[in-house]
């Protein structure tokens, strides 16, 4: 570059440029040292506002005396109108440069860098200064590993410090409400133009933290608008999925930095430093956020039912398996839900301990019950008491029971019928010799990876219930379409779990959902029972032949294949089958023969797709098939509409009074569905749910009943989707009939239209005619 002198500084080369200036390497001729000189670009150096903001950077940074903040040496205004900042020259590279390859940094290096930045922010916090533009480009690392925060160009003082002149104070006031910062690293309050404080910098540091650990920005979108929307509304992706080396304690620290509400983040940089240092020491208990269950189940979303025996430490760390599960589940749930989730776990000290009566009575008030089943707990009195309390108390509310199986339990030995019927989330595997391998953070990388994958599966299952209002009662996934994914061998376990996870996310119930028996005759019966209702069949075949059950000559894998072949060759089978197999050569001749058998036999059927290669090919094939089913379903739904059906809901006391209304609806060409009053109660409830599923509109008759009865029926219309209804009920009305009273005269609702019958006999009103017209078009 052309030689240029600013005062005593000779500019030597351009180091970089940003929105607030250009930075040059320079030689200080008086003190004979290298410095960095920041200048305002020629195009804006006469702009009074930008000049003041430029000087604000120097004032903010010079107020901070810390080894992790770039030191300001001098502020000047060289004629003609050339303001400059002379600062420390940081000989190193920016964090942005280190992250160029989109490859995660090591956990040790990441935590060390974040810790140094947090220490600088601690000093800024004590000085009342917020950086507001923390990002990898503004974090530099020297060759000695010292971290320096650069560029306080958007920094803001939170209080009127004595050093601030009138111009600086006005700058702060006039910029309140302005959006400043770099989009990918903004906090939600910055993106919304709201008030900011030091917790804004902690959010931005959390974004940097996430990027260092995963190699990607958590909220990046395809456009500025999408990025801002993600920052404000979307949870970050799963850090465990992007980097399995991160454990629950580290993920929890990052997640706390990235909370949408400043109140949910660390209250100060000091708190973040404390947790980071504890994590770096290996102090799990200190490093993790405190997930102590306060209050009662009545204030919570999820209740964990468990045995104290299963919370004993298995690997030398202070935390037991249940405590660690609780902590990790809450982190993952909050990531999926994008909000605070309350997970209640009662304090238990002995295996025989039963909960007090007030806690038992509060259990039905949670949205979901999660029971952790193991041999010491499965048939215990406390397990039965807690599950029964939830199930019996949730008859008319949203509910879901999730079963986590920590160690193998024979379903047939379970005393509780509910636990027999619902799906298992197995946190264990069995190798070819039948040994049980429990999923655990500290039992090796493979079991650690599977542990976090299963945590995600449980959280995903729970989140579907927590984010769905007025869903069906006790959700046992009975009506979901079923996919039979054949139990496979340990060498392709990760591929198997990945496919099961994607099918679950597409709304399928994956079976077998429990470990298969290892006795040949019973095994055949189990396989056939699972296959009977399966609409989709998937087989994932690896190199290993697998376990041969007692009394059999073939492995579990090959026995399943035989049952599938018999089913698929039957005349009435319309199921689709996918078989994926590993391209690696098998060492076991039995497995080689098995693979050759389905290559020569099954592949010939038009309903069977044989796939060899990466597992992604199988996922793509399944996805395309399911998309085609959805397209066909959409085409069928576009068929011409038949006769309109209106469900006229009334109580038995008003049955006679509704006859005139019923006749008018029928004469208008409408099929009227009426309630049943004579069948047993369970049949009446089933008919009611089916009517809500089938009808085109609902008319609730408000005659001699109380307002509370009407409110219940209105809530039932919101539950129609949970009963299997494909489209929301858009036409709902309350028909107010005699006798009149004050409550009826003042009746209002946002959930339905109001049709008022005149006093005396039935009359056709404009409101009723309009409702019928809307229902029939």
Describe the protein's architecture and organization.
With 777 residues, the chain is α/β, with parallel strands linked by helices. It folds into five domains: 4-88, Phosphorylase Kinase, domain 1 (2-Layer Sandwich), CATH 3.30.200.20; 93-277, Orthogonal Bundle (Transferase(Phosphotransferase), domain 1), CATH 1.10.510.10; 293-476, Toll/interleukin-1 receptor homology (TIR) domain (Rossmann fold); 480-639, Rossmann fold, CATH 3.40.50.280; 645-776, Rossmann fold (3-Layer(aba) Sandwich), CATH 3.40.50.2300. Helix content is 38%, strand content 17%. The chain is built from 26 helices and 28 strands. The strands form seven sheets. A six-stranded antiparallel β-sheet has the order 1-2-3-4-6-5, covered by helices on one side. A five-stranded parallel β-sheet has the order 13-12-14-15-16, with helices on both faces. Strand 22 (576-581), helix 20 and strand 23 form a beta-alpha-beta unit. Helix 12 (321-337) packs across helix 16 (445-466). It is globular. Mean pLDDT is 82; it is low at 159-180, 285-292 and 469-478.
Observed structural traits:
Transferase(Phosphotransferase), domain 1, 777 residues, Phosphorylase Kinase, domain 1, alpha/beta, Rossmann fold, five-stranded parallel β-sheet, 26 helices
Summarize it.
The protein has 777 residues and is α/β, with parallel strands linked by helices.
